[in-house]
Each structure stands twice: as C-alpha cells, then as structure tokens.
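Q: What would this chain look like folded?
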Amino acid sequence: MIAVFDDFIQDKQLLKDIANDSSFFSDPGIYKYWKGWWTSEPKNVKHRLIKYIWKDNLPIKMDAEIDGFEYWTGIQSAENTGYKDHLVLHLDDDVNLREKTGTWNFPLTGCVYYPPGLNFEGGDLAIYTDGEDSTPELIKSKGNRLVIFDPGKVLHCVQKVTSGTRMAIAINLWDFEPWSVKEGHIVTD
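A: My prediction, written as structure tokens:
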C-alpha cells in the first residue's frame, strides 16, 4: 500500500514551527523513539508532527496497537554539503539487531513527510512494490506531502538529487519496542 497526501498539514502554526525550528534537521540520520502521546505530551516539534499525523489527522484506517514511533530526518544534496545525493535501496528494520544477530524485525508501517519551502530537483522516493527487478513507483518529493507505505515490506530508495538539497522526516510505527531501543542504540525521548 502506498498512499500520498498533498497539502497535508493544514495547521498553519505547525507549519510555521517546522520552518522555524533550527533543530528540526540538525541531526540527520540520528534515530529516536517516542512512546507516543498516550505516555507523554509532545516535547518538541517532531513529536507534535507525529501526533498531528498519526492521532489527529490519520488519513487511512489503521487498527493496531502501537508501542511507539521511530523517527529521523534525512538530507540528500547535490551541493557540496557533505551529504550523499541519494539513499540506497533498503528495507527499514531494526538495524542493530540484524547486525548483531542476523534477525530481521520490521516496523508495522511508516511514512515520509516533506516540509514546504525546499528547492531541489530529483530525489524521488522509489518504491519497489513488485520487487527490485521491477520498475519502481516514483513519488515526487513535494513540499507538504505525506507518503504512507510499508517500509519494512517493500524495498525503497531515494533517487539522486540533481540540484539543491532534499530534506524529509521518516516516521516508523512499531507494535513492540525494538531491540535497538531496549539496548540504547536508539535514544528514547
């Protein structure tokens, strides 16, 4: 399942807070885990975004017990910024568990959100719903777009950014606490 929602955030204050939060993209690739609004109030703009998507405005029907949300930001750039211009083909999983034991654990589902105001070309999200030897479904990285899909079940990547810098936040829902959280590899906040 792939679901794409344009002009997703309608809360002008939340959009403004994302745009003005200097820490929002300050730690790309650093994974964090939040146990959700049912255990603690949102502590930051990222928590507020998670709650906005998955509690207040969930655009799909979902009936599952959620333990928490793994989230991180990603930056791909065609500029000389030190960031790669793409993201390799992969499945989302509990990486530290797999590397230590060979066991694969996957999130229940996930999403990618692109904030408005970014100016770049390329960087499409390629989702291989029929396997890596097939033609991927390409999702344009468009401002204020939410893409919900199963990142632990379908291979996906970010195609090469050809100009500018692409930024996004990925959020995975887990129905149990990942081993990497229990072992301290992913920070709980």
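Residues 117 and 143 are 6 Å apart (CA to CA).
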